[in-house]
Amino acid sequence: MIIKSILVVMGEPNTTFSELLLKYFKSSNFYKNKKKIILIGNKELFEKQCKILNCQIKLNKISYINESLKKRINIINVDYKFKKPFSKITNESNKYIAECFKLSLKIIKENKNVALINGPISKKHFLKKKYPGITEYVAKKTSSKSPVMLIYNSNLSVSPLTTHTPLKNVFKFIKREKIKNNILKIDEFYRSNLNKIPNIAVLGLNPHCETIDKISEEETEIIPAIKFLKKQKVNVSGPFSADTFFLKKNIKRFDVVIGMYHDQVLTPIKTLFEFEAINITIGLPFIKVTPDHGPNHGMIGKNKSDPSSIFYAFRFLDLF
Fold first, then answer.
1. What is the pLDDT of residues 270-300, one digit of tens each?
2. Angle at alpha carbon of residue 158, lines to 156 and 161, rounded to 5°
3. From CA 24, how far away is CA 303, in angstroms rounded?
4. 219 with 311, same domain?
5. Could you report the per-residue pLDDT of 238-251, keeping only the tens digit for each?
6. CATH of the domain at 161
7. Strands (E), the chain
8. Can you tell me the distance from the alpha carbon of 173 to that of 259, in angstroms, rounded to the nearest whole number?
């Protein structure tokens, strides 16, 4: 796939995302980027946020995406009434965020060779417990079934089988069909988009991959799924005990680690690479990446946030 344009959904207005974008646009990386970048958001809001952050930026307002776009920071304006450039996160921005996503998905549906980056949103306010995360939200809006979250770094990536599921409910979703589906999609993504046959490790659910209970998820679900995948010529191994897996001698053997729940794999990957990682949603009809950080409301306007993840997102899309 050849990506010519990148849509950037600005997301929740009251976050550090505008600061991180500015740091990218001011860097040499932006001028080396060969893609056309189109922001989807409110032009006046972004300009006022830039002023607070002591940065001047020239935006090229356009009405729609087209092939003749110049190498500039383009923006398609989305109406949004606001009192202050930065404020507390409330439900007041929900309609604006939804319109930004709606417009971006419409553009992608009507145009080929377009990728999507989305800024952070508030799960509490925007998703309102209707979706576990933005992964599932975008999947629903594009009629995509069984999306897969991949936290990607070129050295090692991780994927939680369950995303934002409460820990007490995780065991209910550890099913062999889900394990098979997720790993097959990840394997295909690496082969088709990264020209690589990945070595995949699967972690167990229980401590040391064992339990004194009558039911062992390793024996009933995880091991049968791994045996099936091996027959499909997938390079997969496991289950491994999570407590020692992320030792250097172990992780250097693999490209992807499949965990059974969110923090089982996101905690070590963020410890290893900090913000040098991105969230890729696999299973959509286009490539979507999200910088691997949240709204970070406490750092708004301070110009101290680490922009590594948005740099990594653009660098990753520049491979296509």
1. 999 988 999 999 999 999 999 877 666 677 7
2. 160
3. 13
4. no
5. 999 999 999 999 89
6. 3.40.718.10
7. 5-9, 36-41, 60-62, 73-77, 114-118, 148-152, 157-160, 200-203, 236-240, 256-259, 278-282, 288-291
8. 12
Q: What angle do CA 164, 168, 171 make, to 5 degrees?
A: 85
Judgement on whether residues 18 and 140 belong to the same structural domain of the protein: yes
Which one-letter amino acid corresponds to residue 248? K
pLDDT tens track for 119-168: 988 888 898 888 888 889 999 999 999 999 999 999 999 999 998 888 89
Pairing of the two strands 60-62 and 73-77: parallel
Number of domains in the chain: 2
Residues spanned by the domain of 52: 1-144+284-320
Inter-residue contact 179 to 221 (CB < 8 Å): yes
Q: Assign residue 307 a region: left if phi > 0, alpha if psi is -120 to 50, beta otherwise? A: alpha
Whether 65 and 162 share a structural domain: no
Question: 165-186 burial string, b = 16+ CB within 10 Å, else e?
Answer: beeeebbeebebebbbbbbbbb
Q: Are 168 and 260 found together in one domain?
A: yes
